[in-house]
Write a structure and sequence with these properties.
Number of strands of chain A: 0
Number of helices of chain B: 7
Largest sheet of chain B: none
CATH class of the largest domain in chain A: Mainly Alpha
Helix content of chain B: over 70%
Radius of gyration of chain B: 33 Å
Number of domains of chain B: 2
Helix content of chain A: over 70%
Oligomer: heterodimer
Number of helices of chain A: 11
Structural class of chain A: mainly alpha
Largest sheet of chain A: none
Low-confidence stretches of chain B: none
Distance between the termini of chain B: 73 Å
Mean pLDDT of chain A: 85
Structural class of chain B: mainly alpha
Distance between the termini of chain A: 38 Å
Order of helices and strands of chain A: HHHHHHHHHHH
Number of domains of chain A: 2
Strand content of chain B: under 5%
Shape of chain A: elongated
Largest interface: A-B, 43 and 33 residues
Radius of gyration of chain A: 18 Å
CATH superfamily of the largest domain in chain A: RNA polymerase sigma factor, region 2, helix turn helix motif
Chain lengths: 178, 207
């Protein structure tokens, strides 16, 4: 991904390792949008996502000397971003919104033919479920990796994903026979 | 006939074979409803991947780089503090060893001892200013842009002096002492200015 996000990545990384502010700024500009997008898809608010963006690049600036170029640069930055976003949702301890909605509205959603668009349905998932959906289905992390980042088991990640897809299917009006 | 659960449908997408996968695949190959469900699952994932990227409303780079610079400066100052302790020890040793070996001090030794004393004083003053700055905890306070810029400039100059001190430590004794004294005095002057900036601004603003 960095090949089109960041021209001459090797030389930029080499300069960033010496603390060159221009090179560090170039890294920020290259990965700002994908990092923010990942953070915003996981976190509840834009403020939290912006904080994750800042935390991620602060860590990138501090740790670029330890980046060993074994994997892709974007993969390295993305893992920092995912870890910061998961830390943020753990710290916030938001109540799972989809569970709250179900408690308030009872079976209403099952009976209604409510159709949401995908953005709204994704937004409505709990932060944990949304994080699993995004990290697994979009970013391509395995259940083992997600479980490890969340401090949980791979089974936890699998069950969150199944639950999230069942809810998305329902909210998007995609149930069997519909 | 019972259809495949979401858990099972999702597990069929995963690499590797889990218990019960063969049976599930067999069911899937014969069940149009479950096949349609798998298609919907694939489409949903494809639509997730195709969602347009969300962009930050604000540029967070200035804050990020300012925080990074502040941390680097703090680290340099800490290193400077450690260096000053090490240098103080080496100066004390340099002053003690000749008197053991040669008896009463010669005039040039006396001049050298005076320089060494001055260096020790500058080091002590430098350490005291660093302690004052550390106790004041400038990172926890808010500075206006102009003052923050001045503080940053002073911290950068202190870091440069620290690098020069490190290089000077490698020179011959005589030249080294004079250079060290000059540099330590410069460091004290810069730290004095930095403390002034933080403390004076805080007392003016009542922070």
């Amino acid at each position: 991904m960095e090949s089109f996000l960041l021209a001459n990545a090797e030389s930029v990384v080499a300069r960033a390792r010496t603390g060159d502010p221009e090179a560090l700024g170039a890294l920020y500009r290259a990965f700002e949008v994908p990092v923010y997008n990942l953070a915003r898809r996981i976190c509840r608010t834009t403020e939290d996502a912006e904080d994750v963006l800042q935390e991620t690049f602060f860590e990138v600036c501090r740790s670029i000397g330890r980046y060993r170029e074994e994997g892709s640069l974007w993969g390295w930055v993305r893992t920092i971003a995912a870890s910061k976003a998961l830390m943020r949702i753990r710290r916030n301890k938001y109540r799972d919104t989809d569970e709250l909605n179900d408690q308030v509205t009872g079976k209403r959603h099952e009976d209604s033919h409510l159709r949401m668009d995908l953005e709204a349905a994704l937004e409505r998932l709990s932060e944990t479920s949304r994080a699993v959906v995004w990290l697994h289905d979009v970013e391509g992390y395995t259940h083992e990796e997600i479980g490890s980042m969340m401090g949980k088991t791979p089974s936890f990640s699998k069950s969150q994903l199944a639950r999230a897809h069942a809810r998305l299917r329902q909210w998007l009006g995609e149930e069997m026979g519909s | 006939m019972s259809h495949l659960s979401m858990d099972t449908l999702l597990s069929l997408r995963e690499p590797g074979v889990e218990p019960g996968t063969a049976t599930a695949r067999e069911h899937l190959s014969q069940c149009p409803q479950c096949q349609a469900e798998v298609d919907r699952l694939h489409q949903r994932v494809a639509r997730l991947k195709a969602l347009p990227p969300l962009r930050p409303g604000r540029d967070r780079w200035p804050q990020t780089v300012a925080r990074y610079r502040a941390e680097r400066s703090r680290r340099r100052i800490r290193m400077g503090g450690m260096m000053s302790l090490a240098a103080a020890a080496s100066v004390a040793l340099a002053m003690t060893i000749p008197s053991w070996n040669r008896g009463p001090a010669a005039p040039s030794d006396a001049a050298s001892a005076l320089t060494s004393t001055e260096i020790s004083r500058a080091m002590e003053r430098s350490q005291a200013l660093e302690d004052a700055l550390s106790a004041f905890n400038p990172d926890a306070r808010v500075l206006d842009g102009r003052t923050a810029g001045m503080a940053q400039e002073l911290e950068d100059r202190i870091a440069r002096v620290d690098r020069d001190l490190e290089a000077t430590e490698l020179l011959q004794q005589q030249a080294r002492d004079l250079d060290l004294l000059k540099l330590w005095r410069e460091r004290v002057g810069l730290l004095d200015a930095l403390v002034d900036i933080h403390v004076t601004r805080a007392s003016n603003a009542g922070l």
